[in-house]
Amino acid sequence: MKNYLLNIICICLVIMGGLTTSCDSWLGKTDPSDFLTSDQVWNDNKMIEGVLAELYNDVATNGNLDNDANFSLIDDFMWCGLMNQDVESARNQMIAYSYNEFDYYDYKYIYKCNQAIESLASKSQLSDTDIALYTSEFRFLRAYAYFQMCIKKRGVPLITETQDYTPGMDVEELQKLRSSEAEIYNFVYDECMDIEESLAGNNRIINRSRANQWTALALASRSMLYAGSIAKYNAAMSNPIVSVEQTGVVGMTGESPNSYYLKAYNVAKRIIEDYANNTLQGIEEPSDDEFYNAVCSKDNNKEVLWSKDYNSSKFHLFSFANIAQSMNEDNDNGSDLCPTLQLVETYGKLMDKDTNGNYIAYENRADIFNDIKDVRLKGTCLVPEQEFKGAKLDIQAGVAIYNSDGSYTFQTGSEPASKYEGDGGTLVGRDGPLNRATYTNTGFNLRKFVDQGSGTSARGQGSYIWYVYFRMGEVYLNAAEAGMELGGEYAVHALKYANLVRQRAGLGADSWKLSDLTINNLLNERRRELALEDHRLWDMKRLRKAHLTWNGVQSPTTMLYSLYPYRVIGGPNNGKYIFERKIAPRFLAPRNFRVGNYYTAFRQDVLDKNPKLVQNPNI
User: Fold this and answer.
1) Tens digit of pLDDT for each residue in 297-339?
2) 422 belongs to a structural domain
3) Residue 303 and residue 291: Cα distance in Å, rounded?
4) pLDDT at residue 457 is higher than 90
5) Does 513 fall in a domain?
6) DSSP string of 484-521?
7) Could you give the number of structural domains in the chain?
8) Better-scored residue on pLDDT, 16 or 161
C-alpha cells in the first residue's frame, strides 16, 4: 500500500512541477500515515512539498473564501444568503453564542507536523539548507496551529514529539495536562523567532502561499500582542477569568503585559524597517481601488505576507456567493455577506436626519457618502451607486410619499427592479434591498475579496483571489497598539505607525494626535482596516469587550442595522432621496456573548479520552 501511494504521489507531483495548491485537494484524500515514515518521502523535495501542501491546505481558519457563513456571526457582516432554517437561525436568529463556537482542537494535525520534523532530522539526506527550510515550515505550521488552539481554548497540552500507542502500554502515559495560556503564547513566539532566518529561503515565492521569514515574524508579533492584552485586560475585569481547577490555563494571571507588548512592538518594528517592501501599498495615491488592490490583487503585491492562494485548478466560489445581483454572471446566488450599517459608519457618520430629527434629502443616493474621506469604505464595501464590474449598485427600498404635514408614508415592494405605479419610476432597485435570500438586507454589498475579473462570479470559472492571513496593514497596527500600551517614546513611534495606516486610507499624514492614540480608537482602526480578515472577534475577546458590547440586550451594538434609500414623491424634495436607518428586517435576535464564550469548551469526547484535561470556566 505504501509503495503504491508513493508511486501515485510521485507521478502527481512530477506532473505538477512542485508545490502548488492545485494538488491540495488530492493530497487531502490520502492518509499521510501511509507514507510519512518512508525514507523515500524525506529524500525527495517534491514529495516533501506535497506533504507540506496538504498541511497548508488544512491550516485552521475561522471563516474563509471556501466557507463564508462564519463571517456573519459577529457585527460587521450580516448573512443575506439562502434562508435555510439551520443557517438563518444560526446567524440571524441566534439566541446566544454556543460555547462550542469556532471549536478547534486538532492533534492529528500536530502529530503530522511532529512526525515530519522528526523524519527530516532522522531520515533525510537532502542538503542542510533544504532540511532547515522544510523543518522550519513544519515548525511554523505547528506553531500556527497552537496559536489557533490557544485563541480558542487557551492553554492546551503542548506536545512537540510524536506519541504512539503500543499494545500493552498504559494509556495514561499519553494523556497530558494542559499547559498554561502563557506557555502556549511563549512557545509560538519562541518557535517563530528560532525559525525566521531559515524561512528566508521562501521570501521570493510568488503569491506568498508558503511561510517565509516575514510570516514567522508577523505571527510572533501577533501572538505577543494577544498575550499582552489578555494579561492586561483580563486582570482589569471586575471578576477576572481564572480556572479554579488548574492555575494558569486561562487568563494570563500574574503575567507582565509590558513584557509581551515590548516583544510585539520590537518584532513588528523590525518587519516595518527590514521588509524589502516596507511601505504600505497604495500610500502614495490613496484610493478605494488602491486599497482593494493592496488586499486582493496578486499583481506586484507588496502588502500581503502570507495567503491561501488559488489558481485555475483550485478556485473558490466566494465571488459567486457574494456578488451583488446587478453584477451577477450566474443565477440563484449572491449577497451572502452584506456589510452592516455599523461597519459602514466606522468609516464616517452618515447624516440621514438633521438635528431636529427631520430627514435630509439628497439629490443622488451616493451623495450621503460624500463627506466620508476614508477610502477603505469603498475598498471594502459597495454603497449605493458605486460602480463595480461595469455596473452601479442599484439600491432603493421604495418610495417616500410626502404628506401635507411634512411627514412621509413609505411604500416598499417585494420584487427587484420594480416600478412605482404613480409615476412609472423605480420602486425597488435591481439590488434590493429585499427581505429575501440573495439580496442585500442591509442596503450595502461586499467588495473585499469579491473578484472584479470577468466571469469570476460564475460557477464554472470561479475566482483565484487569495485569502489573506497576514499583511503589512496589520503589522503597522500591531506596532501602534503595542507602542501605545508601552507609552513614552514608544507611543510617539506608535502614533507614526497608526498615522501611516490612516494616510493610506486618505485621511492625511497627521490625522491623529497623541491624545487620539487610545485602545478604543485603535480597536476601531483595526475594524476599518482589517474587515473580513478574521480579526474582529479575536480583538474583542483579547480586550475583554465582547461580553459588554454584545450583551444580549437589544441595542445599536447587539442588533445589525441597515440603511435604506427611498425616492421622494411630492413636496419640496420631489425626486430626491431620503434614508431610513433601521434594524435589518431579517435580523431578529440580539448578539449575546456570555463570559463563558471567551473560551471554547472542550467537547465531552475529548475530556473522556483525556481525564487530565480540565474544562474551561463559566461553561
Assistant:
1) 999 999 999 999 999 889 999 999 999 999 999 988 999 999 9
2) yes
3) 10
4) yes
5) no
6) HHH-THHHHHHHHHHHHHHHHTTS-TT---GGG--HHH
7) 1
8) 161
